């Protein structure tokens, strides 16, 4: 069920919506001499469908930052004027075609600023629409190379492009003792998974690991038994799954059921979710994944003050567990507002230029984009975690590690 407590309703009667031309208005009470201004930020997000688990996390992050700025800070000053923020996110139901229709409708209504959906297959077509319209999009849900190699000037992402995201994880594999010798890759037929798999193959090979097999599953996976049979017949030291949340969970469950054991299982998405870990129970221990943020991080933030304030404020308003996508969603808002302040106003082209130049610290960590709009792979690269006692523990890089990696991991039968 969607938590509705933080839903940001537009100001009624006393709002002039900047960025929502069709809804731009000012209501004057008797004797009123002031006009409250509102910046509308639109977009679509999966609140239902296959991507809803993470879509809800991103959405909650967007809402938390909006609510904090409006309710706790009384709005934000931009160009010498005070503004409230109005979030207009609509449910795209994990459907790219629906998302493009919804985004075009918001553009037709005059929305100037957009947040992204979750999943490269949704972000990619919606990014094309807003870029063509000359309206900025800041997103924490798409990392496919295709988003950042089309020459888009108005689209900014919180993750390095997919082919650059695996560099730190491959370095982690190379640091293990004894060093793994072989790896195989399972991907699905979608933009993110396929390009992430290419990066994994390149970076693992550069670390001296030999690629045994690569397997591609349909985007909508219902059974992986034939692929897992092949994995058992030609077993790698490391199995890399560049798959989305629900597909990763399905693969792990069927590996357990079929006794498909490897020395290390890495899954790009899935293990970061408490729902994944709860579903697998003790079997989740030993699985590795990537994270870009953890709740005990200690970063300064211009609006929240620090990460702890964000975490505490979020927990006051939501029962849903925190995930790095949640913090990333909140940081998208912080980045947007800071860019508007740096631009001295809400002109979309000037805000776009300010986003391109952004170099700030947020509750999520540092934010800096490449000239193509994706996250700087060094400044905003992934950290590797391994599940221990049902919780993700960062094990690489060593400078920020909270524990030591376990390798080789126990067979499934010994984790029950």
TrEMBL record:
<keyword id="KW-0732">Signal</keyword>
<dbReference type="InterPro" id="IPR028082">
    <property type="entry name" value="Peripla_BP_I"/>
</dbReference>
<feature type="domain" description="Leucine-binding protein">
    <location>
        <begin position="38"/>
        <end position="388"/>
    </location>
</feature>
<protein>
    <submittedName>
        <fullName>Amino acid ABC transporter substrate-binding protein</fullName>
    </submittedName>
</protein>
<comment type="similarity">
    <text>Belongs to the leucine-binding protein family.</text>
</comment>
<keyword id="KW-0029">Amino-acid transport</keyword>
<dbReference type="InterPro" id="IPR006311">
    <property type="entry name" value="TAT_signal"/>
</dbReference>
<dbReference type="Pfam" id="PF13458">
    <property type="entry name" value="Peripla_BP_6"/>
</dbReference>
<keyword id="KW-0813">Transport</keyword>
<dbReference type="InterPro" id="IPR051010">
    <property type="entry name" value="BCAA_transport"/>
</dbReference>
<dbReference type="InterPro" id="IPR028081">
    <property type="entry name" value="Leu-bd"/>
</dbReference>
């Amino acid at each position: 069920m969607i938590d509705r407590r933080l839903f940001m309703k537009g100001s009624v009667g006393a709002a002039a919506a900047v960025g929502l031309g069709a809804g731009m208005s000012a209501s004057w009470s008797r004797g009123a001499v002031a006009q409250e201004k509102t910046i509308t930020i639109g977009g679509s997000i999966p609140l239902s469908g296959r991507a809803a688990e993470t879509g809800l996390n991103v959405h909650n992050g967007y809402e938390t930052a909006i609510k904090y700025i409006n309710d706790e800070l009384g709005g934000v000053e931009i160009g010498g004027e005070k503004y409230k923020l109005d979030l207009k996110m609509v449910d795209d139901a994990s459907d790219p075609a629906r998302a493009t229709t919804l985004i075009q409708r918001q553009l037709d209504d005059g929305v100037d600023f957009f947040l992204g959906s979750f999943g490269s297959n949704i972000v990619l077509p919606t990014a094309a629409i807003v870029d063509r319209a000359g309206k900025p999009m800041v997103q924490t849900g798409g990392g496919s190379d295709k988003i950042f190699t089309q020459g888009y000037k108005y689209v900014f992402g919180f993750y390095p492009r997919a082919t650059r995201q695996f560099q730190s994880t491959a370095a982690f594999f190379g640091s293990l003792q004894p060093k793994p010798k072989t790896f195989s890759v399972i991907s699905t037929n979608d933009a993110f998974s396929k390009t992430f798999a290419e990066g994994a193959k390149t970076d693992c090979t550069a670390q001296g690991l030999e690629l045994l097999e690569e397997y591609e599953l349909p985007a909508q996976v219902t059974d992986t038994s034939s692929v897992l049979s092949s994995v058992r017949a030609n077993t790698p030291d490391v199995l890399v799954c560049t798959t989305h949340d629900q597909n990763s969970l399905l693969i792990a469950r069927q590996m357990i059921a079929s006794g498909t054991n490897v020395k290390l299982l890495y899954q790009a998405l899935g293990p970061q979710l408490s729902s994944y870990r709860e579903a697998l129970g003790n079997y989740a221990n030993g699985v590795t994944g990537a994270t870009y943020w953890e709740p005990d991080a200690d970063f300064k933030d211009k609006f929240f003050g620090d990460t702890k304030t964000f975490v505490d404020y979020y927990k006051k308003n939501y029962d849903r567990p925190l995930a790095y996508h949640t913090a990333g969603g909140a940081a998208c808002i912080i980045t947007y507002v800071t860019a508007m302040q740096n631009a001295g106003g809400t002109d979309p082209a000037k805000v776009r230029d300010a986003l391109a130049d952004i170099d700030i610290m947020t509750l999520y960590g540092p934010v800096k984009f490449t000239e193509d709009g994706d996250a700087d792979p060094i400044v905003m690269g992934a950290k590797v975690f391994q599940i221990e006692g049902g919780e993700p523990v960062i094990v690489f890089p060593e400078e920020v590690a909270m524990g030591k990696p376990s390798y080789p991991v126990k067979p499934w039968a010994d984790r029950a």
